[in-house]
Amino acid sequence: MRWKIKPSGHDPRQIDLLAVVAMLIVIILVGHYLTVHPKPHPTSFVEPSQNVRW
Which UniProt keywords apply (predicted)? Predict the structure, then answer.
């Protein structure tokens, strides 16, 4: 299948390629953000009681 670029507009595959590149950049930036700013961990784990009355 050849690339047929129309003079009236963009090839839909170019838009798809641009969308894929943009999604990859967003995924990389989110991963970088999560490694630089990790979620705070709770200092202690609260265990539920065995004899709770509702």
Answer: Membrane, Transmembrane, Transmembrane helix
